[in-house]
Amino acid sequence: MRQPIMNSSKRYRPGTTTAPLRTLPGRLLAVVFLMLAGALPVRSQSNNPIRQSLETYRNRALQEKLFVHIDRSFYVAGELMWFKINDVDGSLHQPLWLSKVAYLEVLDKENRPVLQTKVALANGSGHGSLFLPTTLGSGHYLVRAYTNWMKNFGSDYFFEKPVTIVNTFRKLELPVVKDTLAYDVQFFAEGGNLVRTLTSTVAFKMLGVDGKGADLQGVVVDQNADTVVRFRPLKFGMGRFAFTPAEGRQYRAVLTDAKGKTVTRPLPVIQEQGYTLQVAEEGKDQLRVTIKTRTPMASPVYLLTHTRLAAIRADEQTFRDNTASFIVDKKSLGEGISHLTVFDASRKPVCERLYFKRPERRLNIDARLMSGTLSTREKAVFDLTTQDETGKAALTNLSVAVYRVDSLQPTESNDILSYLLLTSDLRGAVESPAYYFSATDPTVSEAADNLMLTQGWRRFRWENVLQTNPPAEEYLPEVNGHLIHGKIIHAATGQPGRGLGSYLSIPGKHILLYGSRSDAEGRIQFEMKDFFGPKDLVAQLNPKDSLYRVELQNPFFERFSAPRLPVFDFPTTLKEPLLDRSVPMQVQNAYYRGNLSRYQLPKIDSVAFYGAPDEKYRLDDFTRFPVMEEIFREYVPGVMARKRREGYHIAVLDLPYKQFFSGSPLVLLDGVPFFSMDKVMEIDPRKVQRLEVMTRKYIVGPLVFDGIVSFTTYKGDLAGYRPDAKALLAEYEGLQIPRDFYAPRYDTPQRSGSRMPDLRTLLHWVPALQTDGQGKGQFEFYTSDEEGTYRFMINGMTADGRAGSRQGTFDVTKVIK
Fold first, then answer.
1. Are strands 703-705 and 139-146 parallel, antiparallel or unpaired?
2. What pLDDT does residue 562 have?
3. What are phi and psi of 633, to 5 degrees?
4. Of 44, 453, 486, 746, which is the most exposed, with the fewest CB atoms less than 10 Å away?
């Protein structure tokens, strides 16, 4: 057998192999990070090992964030949920072109996925929709989104947003809410520690059963029931108080609600030795960070500050009278959430707290309705202007939703700026996040700092940062398309099959084949470019490896963050508004079902995976012989079929060397490999539309073949032939095919006077609206037959990472004839 030909006839196609895939993304991540790093300020000692460890981690573990603009947050079953996904780097929040696939799920209160979809990403964004079936029960659900790369860092990093779905075709089964003091009250020591005799700030958070902040009166008492300090929340159930644990005393908190009921909660554990941290404003432009300790031999101490792994600064101080103090210039901190971490003399983290800096760099969006008032079935035109904080025009990518306001829809916004700079870097739900960006209340700074003290969290673990030989990431970024993962295991023992070639094909007239060779753990993966819609997959091994089988893995992440959905309660007073949502949904589905099911078919390469064949035959153009051997003998010179003692042998001409290969070619029927040449010869030629031959060696990922012989049937359905009995046949959902948003136009008297009912409550949805170089844009739509107040919600992002949103309302009145 000849060696693989190293010339222009060697072709590389979308087949995959584990090793090259793990090499390519590493290089790609390095390039992406170098592009970003030029804009990341790095300060202070260049030789500080803690700072160097953090920089090394940042270089290796590129952070990725997703923001999802969902058209609304309240639905009735039977409606469509529309969404736009923005993919950004976690440091600068600039659009990131790393991942080409996002995963979006709707989870119930038990974290069971009720809806799942895969969404194509291009140029840092993607969009799609989900039909909410009437099989869903009424309740609160969680929409979460992530990429394959984000799986490496845990589900706490995923985008999550609660939504409410009510099924009007089922009786509401509401839980019985007991009249009990079911408050969630937690206390947090600033920096993480309470140390005996050292004064600390203690923050607290009080939540009711609805997940919203509660206003309780509190008091800290000692073991003798003597009052030590009284406290009450400032905003959203959060507040703080100063506290100094005395020697030999124990403490607890007693809380009382408006009805006079009391409950007791413990304070954080008091340490006999350790460190405390306090951060205070030092004038307008600086922070003073004070470290105190009761630990002997405590010098020196280090302070590391950074904003989302950027703007890194490391400083060192020695203790004097068990106190060390640092001054931090606010200008050295990035906008949003910064981390201040204290390390002891052995460079172990001992204290940490968060600081929030309100952004000055933002996108300003102005949307103006060109007509003052609107009536039903009238054209609405909005002029858009996008500018940066200095008033300079900003080229912006926007998403727009326009929907009717009712008592069902919460007033909270789906704001991209508050998500990127605040909620995405905090654990747990944040009540009214837009307040911290738009409010002018004099207490907003203190309220924001209370939030930092009670929901402090970082998007990494220090043990991962400081380790010298971190393990390779388990999940790769999908830089070209969806990765299907699987495993080869021994059918009897369950042990992994190492170094075995595997094949994944999609039966059809569009010939697609992917190859992979298993690694030491038996893992395989296939890179599926332009893989849209539901498909039938055939995964198989060469029959010579018949002791093994292929298993495909679930592409969705099966680990979840801590549940945070409140108890579902639906007041009977909302019966009429619910009816006003249910009837329009049913009318739209009844009269416009066809228009609501129109899709934008993606443009994909329809050429077979092997490209243009060396020989191509349309069998209808030739004599129709009854057996396959005669076809090869009569008019296919590139293929030779000979019957031997052990059965048929098929060989393909090695065209560059003018002789036949000694090995068997890859034989395909509608893209599915056939390994038995006897079965190939049994194929009825009258069911085959065309035959294509590659008369040279061909490489599919890690697999090399002595030519290709490809049969295509008239319907691309294998014409009744079955793959190998041990092949895995699976139904698999590819990337979502985008649905067209339908809205009627009333631009003629005939259309305006149509008797077809139009009860749309979602008037307009556009996921990708671009303003021009002057920051100008426009969108338009027609109102429906539904009068009332409508809200528009706009989210936008520029190429340099400025984000902003704008919302407003307008009224639609009924036309009186």
1. unpaired
2. 82
3. -75, -35
4. 44
- Does residue 253 sit in helix, strand or coil? strand
Do 744 and 376 form a contact (C-beta atoms < 8 A)? Answer: no
66-174+561-597 CATH pick, 1.10.357.10, 3.40.50.720, 1.25.40.20, 2.60.40.1930: 2.60.40.1930
Measured CA to CA in angstroms, residue 515 lies from 281, 525, 542, 684 at distances of 60, 8, 12, 27
Where is average pLDDT lowest: 31-35, 43-47, 508-512? 31-35
CATH topology of domain 615-721: Ferric Hydroxamate Uptake Protein; Chain A, domain 1 (2.170.130)
The residue to which tokens 């909302």 are assigned: 574
Half-sphere exposure of 119 (CA within 13 A, CB side): 28
In contact, 738 and 127? CB cutoff 8 Å = yes
Query: At residue 23, what are phi and psi to the nearest 5 degrees?
Result: -80, -45
How many residues would you count in the chain? 817
Distance CA 419, CA 434 (A): 9
- 469 contact partners, CB below 8 Å, separation of at least 6: none
Rounded distance, CA 236 to CA 252, Å? 22
Fold that domain 194-271 belongs to in CATH:
Immunoglobulin-like (2.60.40)
The span from the CA of 394 to the CA of 201, in Å, is 43
The residue type found at 250 is Q
Can you tell me the distance from the alpha carbon of 710 to that of 672, in angstroms, rounded to the nearest whole number?
Answer: 9
- Picking from 710, 724, 644, 704, the residue whose alpha carbon sits closest to that of residue 671 is 710
| DSSP notation for 42-73 | B-S-TT-HHHHHHHHHHHHS--EEEEEEES-S
Paired tokens of 700 = 């599919």
CA–CA dist 249, 245 (Å, integer): 7
- pTM here is 0.90
User: Which residue's entry shows tokens 């949307």?
Assistant: 367
- Considering only CA atoms, which of 817, 813, 694, 816 is closest in space to residue 380? 813
The number of CA neighbours under 13 Å toward the Cβ of 800 is 11
Closest CA to 295 of 221, 372, 198: 198
Give the integer Cα–Cα distance in Å for 488 and 621: 43
* C-alpha span between 709 and 666 (Å, rounded): 6
| Tokens 């800096």 sit on residue | 357
Q: Buried (b) or exposed (e) across 106-128, using 16+ Cβ within 10 A?
A: bbbbebebbbebbbbbeebbbbb
Helices (H), 426-490: 435-438, 444-454, 462-466
Sign, CA dihedral 605-609-613-618, equals: negative
Nearby residues of 317 by Cβ (< 8 Å), 6 or more positions away = 291, 300, 301, 303, 324, 325, 326
- Place 462 in a pLDDT band, splitting at 50, 70 and 90: confident
Q: Give the angle 662-664-665 at the CA atoms, nearest 5°.
A: 120
d(CA 514, CA 484): 10
Q: Where are the domains of the chain?
A: 66-174+561-597, 194-271, 615-721
How much is the average pLDDT of 520-524? 95
Residue whose C-alpha is closest to residue 95's, from 653, 796, 619: 796
Q: Name the residue among 762, 766, 786, 763 with its Cα closest to residue 79.
A: 762
Element (H, E) at 584: helix 575-591
Closest CA to 808 of 423, 212, 361, 380: 380
Same fold, 66-174+561-597 and 194-271: yes
Mean pLDDT on 166-186? 78
Q: Which of 611, 620, 645, 648 is nearest to 633 (CA)?
A: 648
Q: What is the mean pLDDT of residues 113-128?
A: 97
When computed from its CA atoms, the radius of gyration of the chain, rounded to whole angstroms, is 32
Collapsed DSSP state (helix, strand, coil) of residue 230: strand
For residue 790, the SS3 value is strand
Q: Which residue has the tokens 């999550």?
A: 160
| Most confident of the following: 177-181, 451-455, 724-728 | 451-455
